[in-house]
Amino acid sequence: MLDFGNMVLASANPLEHVVAKPLFTFSLWGAKIVISNHIFMLLLATVLLILVLPLAVRDKRLVRRGFGNLIETVCVFIREEVARPFLHDRTDKYIGFIWTTFFFVLTLNLLGMVPLARIIYLLTGRESHLEGAATANIWITGALALSAFFMIHISGMREHGFGGYIRNFAPKVPWPMVPFIYLMEIIAALVKPFSLAIRLFANIFAGHVVVATIIGLALIFRNITAGFASVFAAVLLSLLELFVAFLQAYIFTFLSTIFIGFAVQPEH
């Protein structure tokens, strides 16, 4: 068992907070399934949202108070200022997915900032890997982007039918240009989710690495001035990272909404 000092030294590794760590494995139909700390954070975020959001909006009064009012304000803002300008009368069809995307990505970002393993160690004296920034894992952000990819194209086919949706890839262009336009549209369809995944991953990954690096400077120089400066810088960067957590959830949701809007209303 590591003592707290060694644990602090280990946490100075800039990659300590972003790499996936296996928690346990089990077999399913002959396949070996590994549950990592990032998978645990996904499950924790899901459970929290399932429990917290219904409780927050259970108040049926016309004007909610406290946390419920905050959630309602965020939902109204996303519906009216993010979704409606691109989806118009189709907003209510897709707002459920858009709300879910925002709150899920935001919850993952915020949970990644909570030092659960350190809290568990202080309470129990046992080392734990039950923490981690799931959205600093490219496989996690890739899965989120893949869900947006399917939603984009399923929405387009739902509104226009398969044939109509495919025809909308190259509307009213001279026939010699049709193959080129279709090639560009296929590339764009693949690049859009890739850009969503990379943007979210890179920002969250970089934020955690920078904060850990700044804290590590205090352990390297080991003097009061360096310690004070590194802690002060880490606090400021943590506040910036908190802002980035909200910002990246918004950007991921905003871009997903734009892409869905292009699919369901190509004329715009």
Task: Characterise this structure.
There is one protein chain. This protein has 268 residues and is mainly alpha-helical. It has one domain (4-264). The protein is built from eight helices and two strands; from the N terminus they run αββααααααα. It has helices spanning 4-11, 37-56, 66-87, 91-111, 116-124, 138-167, 178-221, 224-264; strands at 22-28, 31-36. It has a two-stranded antiparallel ribbon with strand order 1-2. A hairpin with a 2-residue loop joins strand 1 (22-28) and strand 2. Helix 6 (138-167) runs parallel beside helix 8 and helix 7 runs antiparallel to helix 8 (224-264). It is globular and about 70 Å long. 26% of the residues are buried.
The ordered H/E elements are: HEEHHHHHHH
Strand content: under 5%
Structural class: mainly alpha
Low-confidence stretches: none
Tell how many strands the DSSP assignment holds: 2
Mean pLDDT: 84
Distance between the termini: 60 Å
Overall domain count: 1
Q: How is the main sheet built?
A: 2 strands, antiparallel
Spatial strand sequence of the major β-sheet: 1-2
Radius of gyration: 22 Å
Gross geometry: globular
Fraction in helix: over 70%
Tally of contiguous helical segments: 8
